């Protein structure tokens, strides 16, 4: 599965992350740990009927390069441990854990390449990926895998919707990092005389320098600031109205959620917490709207940092996001 000479590792799904409360066997499977299946990516070709695959991006090199607080490489493991204990409410869906792509020797770029390969493989087999990180540099590998999977088909426009306090549009100077992925995506598609639509939700003025707002303007990036991300009916409808032309223009949607976009009251376990972020209720309501378009191709959750968490609040929120995505997919 992985290209030769990439400084990266792959670890198949581990059952040891998935434990939970015992339940009466006569009432069937009640919890995630009882329902999830485990699969080695090399056995994908022999599998049929998989609806959704969880894939971990065990890499915090991009965060380190961006001078953030490290610890995000623990995110995939801890998210699984919290998700395992949640009750299930979805039906007739086959969900598998396909393991982790693991960064070695600070080779974030190799990790992104390997990650893109596996994302492409999943989408080509009509499996919906839910990726869990790891730094937000995951988004570059994730998008490239999606793009390679659909670029030669009749429906090939993928719009990116990013729930985040940051644009992550920084130009690459010496090396890419967790603050550069969407600039990289835009630049990469320009090399192929192509383009991508990018919509950022939850942008905070205090978390982005003026240059990033200028880049957003130059690249026709749509965005709404955090003050407009409230869960009242009027404000939700205003955002939906703003999103609708973006949705109509694209064949598919790639949704990426940076946990630092949430208020630190709900998500303290991130590299860059802020009290001014959005609420979980806002995101859940917007996700429900986006899934009703039937255009969502893939999702990921980035920047969970369990080493900075409090009472597993952030990890539990991230796990509930995964559960919500699976239930509404």
Query: How many helical stretches?
Result: 10
Radius of gyration from the alpha-carbon trace, in angstroms: 18 Å
What is the first-to-last residue Cα distance? 27 Å
N to C succession of SSEs? EHEEHHEHEHEHEHEHEHEH
- Helix percentage range: 25-40%
Which residue ranges are poorly predicted, with pLDDT under 50 across at least 5 consecutive positions?
Answer: none
The number of distinct β-strands equals: 10
Beta percentage is 15-25%
Task: Write down the overall mean pLDDT.
Answer: 96
Would you mind describing this structure in some detail?
The chain is α/β, with parallel strands linked by helices. It is 35% helix and 18% strand. Strands 1, 2, 3, 4, 5, 6, 7, 8, 9 and 10 form a ten-stranded mixed sheet that branches. Helix 4 runs parallel beside helix 5, helix 5 packs parallel to helix 6 and helix 9 packs parallel to helix 10. The longest helix is centred in the middle third of the chain and has 17 residues, at 108-124.
Keywords:
single chain, 329 residues, alpha/beta, ten-stranded mixed β-sheet, 10 helices
């Amino acid at each position: 599965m992985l290209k030769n000479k990439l400084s990266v590792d792959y670890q198949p799904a581990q059952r040891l992350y998935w434990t939970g409360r015992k339940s009466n066997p006569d009432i069937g499977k009640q919890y995630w740990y009882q329902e999830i299946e485990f699969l080695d990516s090399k056995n994908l070709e022999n599998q049929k009927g998989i609806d959704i695959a969880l894939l971990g991006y065990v890499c915090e090199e991009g965060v380190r390069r961006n001078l953030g607080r490290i610890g995000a490489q623990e995110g995939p493991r801890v998210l699984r441990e919290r998700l395992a204990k949640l009750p299930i409410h979805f039906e007739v869906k086959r969900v598998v854990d396909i393991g982790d792509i693991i960064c070695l020797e600070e080779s974030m770029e190799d990790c992104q390449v390997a990650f893109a390969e596996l994302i492409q493989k999943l989408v080509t087999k009509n499996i919906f990926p839910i990726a869990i990180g790891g730094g937000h540099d995951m988004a570059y590998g994730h998008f490239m895998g999606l793009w390679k999977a659909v670029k030669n088909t009749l429906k090939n426009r993928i719009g990116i919707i990013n729930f985040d306090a940051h644009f992550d549009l920084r130009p690459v100077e010496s090396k890419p990092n967790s603050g550069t992925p969407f600039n990289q995506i835009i630049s990469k598609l320009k090399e192929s005389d192509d383009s991508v639509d990018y919509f950022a939700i939850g942008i905070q003025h205090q978390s982005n320098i003026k240059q990033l707002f200028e880049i957003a303007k130059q690249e026709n990036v749509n965005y709404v600031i955090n003050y407009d991300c409230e869960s009242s009916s009027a404000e939700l409808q205003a955002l939906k109205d703003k999103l609708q032309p973006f949705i109509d223009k694209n064949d598919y949607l790639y949704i990426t959620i940076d946990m630092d976009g949430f208020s630190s009251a709900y998500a303290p376990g991130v590299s860059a917490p802020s009290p001014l972020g959005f609420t979980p209720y806002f995101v859940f309501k917007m996700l429900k709207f986006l899934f009703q378009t039937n255009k969502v191709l893939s999702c990921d959750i980035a920047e969970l940092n369990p080493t900075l968490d409090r009472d597993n609040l952030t990890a539990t929120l991230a796990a509930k996001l995964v559960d919500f995505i699976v239930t509404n997919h």
